[in-house]
Amino acid sequence: MALLTAVSGLELGFSSPNHSVTAEKLLFLNNGIGIRYGDNYEWSDVNGKMHIKNSLSLFNDKDVWNMVRMTWSPNIAKPEF
């Protein structure tokens, strides 16, 4: 399956530790951001987990973006590729 020409192909934003996203065998193509972990809200906490397996993120403005605005830093423990 392909996710095409969206602002974000897949995004996990404001979330609790109980949220979990799994994407398998997907193509993220020609999106603003192919795969995004984080949110635009400076007040929001992003605590969910993201699992990406056997997928490609190609030719997006940003193929993968891991940025939590609350801290303006990536969260390297929660996304898993």
Protein architecture, described:
This protein is mainly β. The protein is 0% helix and 44% strand. It has no helices and 9 strands. It has strands at 2-4, 8-12, 20-24, 27-29, 33-37, 49-53, 56-58, 62-66, 79-80. It is globular, with a radius of gyration of 12 Å.
Question: What would a concise description of this structure say?
Answer:
The protein is mainly beta.
How many beta-strand runs? Answer: 9
Report the order of strands and helices: EEEEEEEEE
Q: Which sequence of strands runs across the widest sheet? A: 1-4-7
Tally of alpha and pi helices: 0
Q: Which residue ranges are poorly predicted, with pLDDT under 50 across at least 5 consecutive positions?
A: none
**Structural class by helix and strand composition:** mainly beta
Largest sheet: 3 strands, parallel
Spatial shape:
globular
Strand content: 35-45%
**Mean pLDDT over the full residue set:** 93
Radius of gyration: 12 Å
Through-space gap between termini = 18 Å
How much helical structure, as a percent, in the residues? under 10%
Show the helix and strand layout:
Blueprint: E1 2-4, E2 8-12, E3 20-24, E4 27-29, E5 33-37, E6 49-53, E7 56-58, E8 62-66, E9 79-80
Parallel strand pairs: 1-4, 2-5, 3-6, 4-7, 5-8, 6-9
